[in-house]
Every structure is written in C-alpha cells, then in structure tokens.
Design a protein that fits this description.
By secondary structure, the chain is mainly beta. It folds into 2 domains: 4-121, Immunoglobulin-like, CATH 2.60.40; 136-245, Immunoglobulin-like (Sandwich), CATH 2.60.40. It is 4% helix and 34% strand. The chain is elongated, with a radius of gyration of 25 Å.
Length: 247
C-alpha cells in the first residue's frame, strides 16, 4: 500500500487535458467524457527539475489513484520538453465516483517524492432513470393540436427527473409516430436547452419553435425528449406526448 498523503506533496499536480474542466462556481473536480470510458487517458506530469539527464540513470514515475498505485512505474531519462505523459488505463477507473489523482516520482539516486493532487469524476449512468416521464404540452395544444401555419412556439414541459444535474442537455424531438429509433441515427432535435443550477429538481419549460411545427408532416405527431448529461451519456427517448397537425 502506498499512502501518498502520509508524505509531503511537494511536486506540482498532474493534469488530464482531455477532461472537462469544472464550470465556474463548481467544486474543483474535472469530469471525464463518457466517450473515453474505454480508452487510455493521457495524464500530463511536469518534468521535475531534479530529473536525471544522465543516459545511464533512469528515474521512475507512476500514477496514484486515491493514494494507491494507479499505473506501473514508467522509466524515464533524458526528457526533452516540459511534460511527461503517462496513460491511465480504463481498468483503474471503472467505478462511478470522484477520484483523487497524483503521482510518485522516484529519482534514480534518491527517495520517492510525491505530487499535489487533483480530483476527477467518472459518470457512466445516463440521467432520467429507467422510466422517465412523458413531456407535457400546454392544454390547448394537447386538446386541439396545431395548424400548419402556426407562428408561435409550443410550450413543452419536461418533468424533473432522476439524477438531474446542472449541465444536462434536454433535446426535444418532433416526429411522426414510430420514428423514435431515428433519434439516434438521423433526426436532429427541434430544440435543445441546457439545465441550469436553478432548474435542478424542477420542471423545465422548453419552447418548441414554430418552424419545427411548420416543417413537420401533417397528421399525428409525437413529442419526445432525450436527456444527455454533461459527460455525454445519452438516455433513451422518453415516452411521447401526442398532438395532431392539421393540413
């Protein structure tokens, strides 16, 4: 066991350039992108001043996750440049949680030194839970439908949902019945909005543009939403709210 917290953390912290930085006002925790879940992530380490430039001597580095080894030792000598790059394997970050990341530097002729740490979060579970609620349309639209010449937006209300968080994206789709699978392949959302900190835990009202309605085919239509969290995890399409567009 290696407890880096038991040693002075004198070296600069590492960084993960491909991670999403924290948003203004949030805790200093970066977020890994969902698309990189099964990829090696390159961790950037500043080259220590004490790094040996003797080709016969080899210094070693390894990542530390939550104070435990997060990689094998990498052997380094005679580095040119300002950074060393160490891959962080997917197998060491399989849990959905906040991790603390640092590194150990073992010079060829001295005791190990330890870095300051950063935190990053992994998210794998899409928002909304297994059974998101259907969106709601304003009463007049739900009862009477819309006309092809409509010039005002339709209000679509998305109920609060499981794991709702700042930075989620709510994408609204307007499609003929039976086309929900096209959402993931060819259909673009009619409108998308980001969830703000003030929206969390509340219903979100979204304006479906009149242009989306005039561009849709006449007849029965379905309004669905898809939730995507800030890490990029997409949920399945919601159940539909139905309306009819007159010719």
């Amino acid at each position: 066991m290696t407890d880096s917290n038991a040693h002075p953390q004198s070296l600069p912290a590492p960084s993960i350039p491909d991670a999403l930085p924290p948003e203004a006002g949030d805790a200093p925790v970066s977020l890994l992108r969902a698309a990189q879940r099964n990829e090696d992530l390159q961790v950037q380490i500043p080259v220590p001043d004490a790094l040996s430039q003797d080709p016969d001597l080899v210094d070693m580095f390894r990542l530390l996750l939550d104070g435990e080894p997060g990689s094998d030792f990498f052997h380094v000598n005679c580095v040119s440049g300002e950074s060393i790059w160490i891959p962080m394997r997917p197998v060491v970050r399989e849990e959905e949680k906040v991790y603390t990341l640092g590194y150990e530097y073992k010079p060829s002729s001295a005791d190990s030194q330890y870095s300051k740490t950063i935190q990053f979060e992994t998210r794998f579970t899409p928002p909304g839970g297994p059974s998101p609620a259907a969106p709601k349309l304003d009463d007049d639209t739900a009862k009477n439908g819309v006309t092809g010449s409509r010039s005002t937006p339709v209000t679509v209300t998305v109920p609060p949902y499981t794991s709702m968080a700042k930075g989620d994206v709510i994408a609204i789709f307007l499609l003929p019945p039976g086309n929900e699978e096209s959402i993931f392949f060819e259909s673009a959302p009619a409108v998308s909005v980001a969830v703000s900190a003030g929206d969390v835990g509340k219903a979100v009202s979204v304006k479906l543009p009149a242009e989306a309605i005039t561009g849709a085919p006449a007849g029965p239509l379905e309004v669905r939403y898809v939730l995507v969290d800030r890490a990029g995890n997409p949920a399945l399409p919601s159940p539909a709210a139905r309306l009819t567009k007159a010719n």
